[in-house]
Model the fold of this input.
Amino acid sequence: MQEAGVKPAVEVIVVNFNAGSALVRCIQSILAQQQPVNITVADNASTDGSISRLLESLGPLDNLAVLANDQNLGFASAINEAARLRELRGRYLLILNPDCEMLPGSLAAMIEALEQDEQAGLAGPMVVNREHQPMRGTLRRFPGPGSAFLTFSGLWRLARWFPFFSGVEMMDRLPAETATAEAVSGACMLLRVSDFLSVGGMDGDYGLHCEDLDLMYRLRQKGRHCLFVPAAQVFHAQGVSSSGRPVWVHWQKHLGMQRFFKKFQAGQTFLLLRWLVLAGIWLRFVVTLPLVWIRR
Done:
């Protein structure tokens, strides 16, 4: 536990890829949290001038560093590289998407939640839209054959009346107070540096999606649980970095689903169900691809 009156230092890693002006707002929201922070922006070879805009807007800061990757390493690998180079000397690590803005007091609320629960491995906020309404994915379960089917089929919408139909995303009854959870949103994650290092950081073999669930699952295997902290709120613009390549993102999302299932659950299911799940993942990709293409 931290000494009374002493604010624990927080290491912050933000992975940027063409996030534009959203990156500036993201970093400004972190600096406004009134916590001692060391911010690292890991830039995955952006071409939109977002890093120049950030430095011009904020000027030189002792607690802000930019790591310029010469290629797009992917989200998880960029996190690991930043953690390795910066050596993470703080007590906590905050991983935040560049299209997120932390509302006042959110970082302190998540720190307090972890300080009060030594078995908690990771804390996540209420992720909201511009109207301050909770966004899908703010509170989740780990995907399994049953919950994934309910989510992909749309039957999760019945969970408001029939809890049995809750899919991966637990949107029917969000707790009003801090509560344990299987998984929270990967857009904003706070965890102890010691826990992050104990599980070996992120799995860099994920391209873009499900690496957050992977981290939470490995923490659970170490006896740690997640905390959903609704007193902390983060606005998420969602998709700012990926808006120019929706089909590729859609492909990466399903590759992530496949990797998560094969890594953690395939060995626990009989062969026929295993193939049905994998077929279902790629059937969903094919069925939803035209809609993604139209919306691009």
User: Anything to note?
Assistant: The two ends are 48 Å apart (CA to CA). The chain has nine helices and eleven strands. The chain has one domain: 10-138+174-295.
